[in-house]
Every structure is written in C-alpha cells, then in structure tokens.
Amino acid sequence: MVKQVNQETSREQLEEELYLFNTGQLFDSYLTLGCAAEIFEGVAGFRFTVWAPHAKSVSVVADFCNWDTGLAMEKIDETGAWTLFSDAAKEGHCYKYRIEQANGEMKLKIDPYAHEFEVRPKDASIVKSLPQKKWKDHLWMASKKRHTLTKRPINIYEVHLSSWKCHADGSWYSIPELQQELIPYVKEMGYTHIEFMPLMEHPLDASWGYQLTGYYAVSSKFGTIEEFQDFVEAAHQAHIGVIMDWVPGHFNRNDYGMAYFDGTPQFEYNDSNKAQNFRWGTMNFDLGKAQVHSFLISNALFWLEQFHLDGLRVDAVSSMLYLDYDEGPWIPNEDGSNHNREGVHFIQKMNTTIFKRHPDVLMIAEESTAWSKVTCPVDQGGLGFNYKWNMGWMNDTLKFFEMDPLLRKHHFNLITFSFMYAFNEKFILPFSHDEVVHGKKSLMHKMHGDRYNQFAGLRTMEAYKMAHPGKKLDFMGNEFGQFLEWRVHSELEWSSLEDEMNHQYQQFSQRLNELYKKERALWEIDHDPSGIEILDADNAEESILTFIRKGKKPRDFLIVLCNFLPVERQQYKVGVPYEGLYEELLNTEMVEFGGVWTTGQGVLKTSADSQNRQPYSLELILPAMSVVILRPKRVMGVPKS
C-alpha cells in the first residue's frame, strides 16, 4: 500500500498516530513507524519514521545517501519520533539510523520496524514495502470462524525451520523448498498444525530464534515476507494450520539493535535489575511502558494479519509474571509480593486486543508455574490465553517413562496426578524441543531397556498422551523415534528411517494421528470432566491405568487401557457402560508397528459381571507395555442424545 499525502495531511496524520502510539493504543504501529512507500507532494519515495525520544539528533545513513553523515531527520514536536521522506530511497537499499544519543555518543542502529535485513553476519535494515498479497485461503479462514477451537482436533508438529532438513552441503532449505516438502509430509503424517520456532530476525542460531533483533521481519536466513506468506497460504490450502512462537518478554542486547536505542532505557526498564535478563543474556521489555505496548501488540497482530497465522505460542510467559523469575537481584512490591503487575496488565491487554479482532486464533502460553487462570478470560480475572502448555504433565510423564519399570509401581502418581488438575486450564500436552536437547536425550533414548523395549515404551507413551484430555504437540523427529537429540546445526536423522524399527514407528505415529482426528471422543470434550471417566487409577501394583474418553454423543466413547509394565496380563477384566460387542481400535503391540502381535483380539463380547463401577465388563489380553483402545461395535441401551 502506497500512501499519497501532502505536507499538511502527512504531518497531521503522523501526529495523531504517534499520539496513539505514545498512549499505548496504536495497534497497527508498523504502518506508521519504520520504512514505508509514500507519494509525498506528488513524488514517489519512502518515509522513514523512528521513535527515539531522548536522541539529540537522528539521521538516515544508507546506500542512497552518505553512510558517514546521512540525511538528517526531523523531530516531530513532543512525540519522541523522528521522520524523513526521501525520493532517492529504492526497494533493496540498505540503511540504518545514525543516532546521536543522550550522552552525545554516535550509534548506528537498525530499524526496529524493518521488514527485511541483510543476511548475517551483515545486519543493516533493507528498504522494503509491505506486500499486498491477494490471499487464496478463503475456505480455511471461513472454516475457522465456523468451528469452535476447543471442540476441534489439534495435533501440532513443532518445527525448527533450518534443521528439519538441510541440503547435502549443509546449507539451509529456502522457505519455498520447505513448502514443497514439509507441508505434504505434515499432511501425510496426519498432524493438524505446524508450529514454527521463531522465524523473526535473530543473529545467533544457538538462541534457536528466541533472542530477536527484528520483530517485523522474517529472518534473512530463512527467506522473505512474500515467501512465508505463500507458505502459510499453501498450508491452509492443504488444511494445515500454522502457528509461530513469539517472544514479547525479552529481546537481543546486541549494540546495533534495540538495546538502549536512544542512549537511555527506551524499550527496556529504567531499573537495570529489571532491564537485564541475566539467565538468557538479553534485555527485558519494559511492560509498563505505553509505547512498548503499542510496539508488541502491533507485532502480534502483524504476524496474525499479514501472514494469516492461526495462532502464536507466547514464549516465557512466567518471566513476565514474576519479578524474581530471573537469577539476578530483584525488589518486591510494597506488600512483599513477587508478581510483576505491569507484566500481568500487559498480557491481559494483549489478549483482550487480539481476541477482539480475531476470536478464532490460538494464543498459547508457555507458562511453567502454577499461576492460576492462565486460560481464563480477562473479564473473569484471568490472563486471557485460550491454551497453555501442560509442563507439569510433560515433566511427570517423561520422568515416569525414563525409570526402570520395576520401580514404576512406587511412582504411579506421576502418571495419574495430572487428572487432578487436567481441567483447571485449557491444556496442550507437549513433547517439545526443550525436552530433547542439551543432554536430555531424545524421547526414544529416554525410554528404558533395549531397543525393542524402547520403541514399545515410546508407543505406549505417545498413545497414552493421545488418549489423555488436552490438545497435542510433538517436536520434529519424535514421530520416527530419532535416537540422537536435536542439534540446531544439523538436519533430523532421516537416514534412521532405513532401519525397519524406525520406519514401523513412523507408521505407528501416522496411524495414531489419523485415529486421533477420526475419533471425536479424543478431542470433542477436552476441557471438561464430562469428557473422561476414570475406571481404575489405583492399580499401582500392576501399573495399569484404565479410563473412558467421551464425545458429545453417548455412542462416541472409547475404552482406554494402558499397561506401563513389560508384563502381559491374561484374562484382564475392564468395566464398560453398555452391553454388547466391542472391537479393538488400537493395539500398540501389533507387528506392523514393531510389536509382536500378528493378529488382534477380534470382537469382544460383554459379560454381566460388573467391574470398575460399570454394569458390564470385557475380558481380554492386555499386551506387555502397551495401550489398547476399544470402541463399541454393536451395543444396547445407548441413549439417542
């Protein structure tokens, strides 16, 4: 979009928009600040606008002018912003801001609102118009409005873009190349969404994209805005949603970036203890500052609107909620509490603003503490997210499966405790990148026993996750049992698929994902106790857990039996609610998945013996280290509604 303005309307409009920016209410601030194409007084060029309230002077230095002195920018009265129109600027030119800081020191800074940057190690901003794409994903976008998120299947494939696959020489796949391979793979595997680790501009691979310099640009390492827009469109046309990780809590401290931009604490807190993020070596955003609200909320909406993203996973929410979350010194509130009230207010404002515009998007909190009401609406005292990663479930589950099966009966609460709080929040159950890196080992490597038992344990764990209430997430490589833990500079261990056991496990993952999407009982009532009925959670001695998952319709139910020991149980009885015939929907020990069972157990007929507080029961063999899921085939007495 190219603005056509004259001097009078340009200044008046800028002042009005900057007033909103300074009061924390300009939620499309990327259309005002940064670099944008403009026709000014009939002349085509680009307008540069930057917020640097305590700078003594600001110039644009660029390919189209002198890099030493540049073109002086004009300060717009009391707005704290500086502006310049140049008809010499062209698409693709590199530029920076030459800022005479409050102490008189000269610094070259990137544009915080730039839409493109040089490929690192170079770091200049690039003159770039925001593309006006004609989208072709109308069916997907309309479908989102018709279907309630909580009552849909959500099974997310988490991806680090440059290490999913690499070329033979180790170079990265471009976004168009990835589009041709990743989207068909995700669709074939049966996932519903792709979640990317951050794709914004960042200087260091080791940060995995979580230490950002350019919030409004796709990283030059990955590609362009247009390419990522096309990727999302292609994913939607394939009926795959796209989510991205987003980092509003802290930012990269490199000198050329936003840190002490005008020589004073500008984006960061005035208090150096609050400004410094000691754990991650970054700077914390001042979440009490109105202009930071405009910058960050605009950024969230930028990715949701300009790229049609289906949601954001908000990183490190805990660091925004607590004054003492970091490792450095801190000062409590007047009442002695440790809550960051400014952070809480910002999060509530952010979610309120986003859901007012887009009630159908996912706003997912990565929050690792017991903070209450994370997914409760703001008007009910909550933070306003609609989903939260269940970190407690993940940690307990992995700890349970890593231990010797002989010890599991003594720690059975690790696998059952989650049912005590499963409906306190709207949860996503993640096996994420954080759990397969830095010496934690891959999921497959965490499993106890020899290679056969490791895969049996992995199948059991994933099937248990799929049957447990809550939406799902798996990190790339988990789906085929990669043995090596994730390495940011190398592609996944795709060669392991030449091994029959890995290939069979990949087939199992695919079958499990498709089963999940097909069976409404596994996702239709995920966030209410009515969606599950526990049959037996007290059989610690045999380490067997049984429960019923339920959909809205009475006939939409599944019987889930989890055997967490490598011991087969003959003539095992489980209670069922209705008389009739039941069939095996899943047996994780089938030979096609890498198990030892060549044939299933056929159709099972109920007996009138009550079991597990149910009027009828079934008798079956419960394979060693397995999950068996049964569904009704022909039953009597089921209510019609």
Count of helix runs? 14
Unreliable spans are: none
Q: Using the CA coordinates, give the radius of gyration.
A: 27 Å
Largest sheet: 8 strands, parallel, barrel
Instruction: Identify the CATH class of the largest domain.
Output: Alpha Beta
CATH topology (level 3) name of the largest domain: TIM Barrel
- Compute the number of structural domains: 3
The general outline is: elongated
Q: What structural class is derived from the secondary structure elements?
A: alpha/beta
CATH superfamily of the largest domain: Glycosidases
Cα end-to-end separation:
53 Å
Instruction: Give the helix proportion (percent range).
Output: 10-25%
- What's the β-strand tally? 31
Q: What proportion of the residues form beta strands (DSSP E)?
A: 15-25%
Strand numbers in spatial order across the main sheet: 11-12-15-19-20-21-22-23
User: What's the average pLDDT?
Assistant: 96
Architecture (CATH level 2) name of the largest domain? Alpha-Beta Barrel
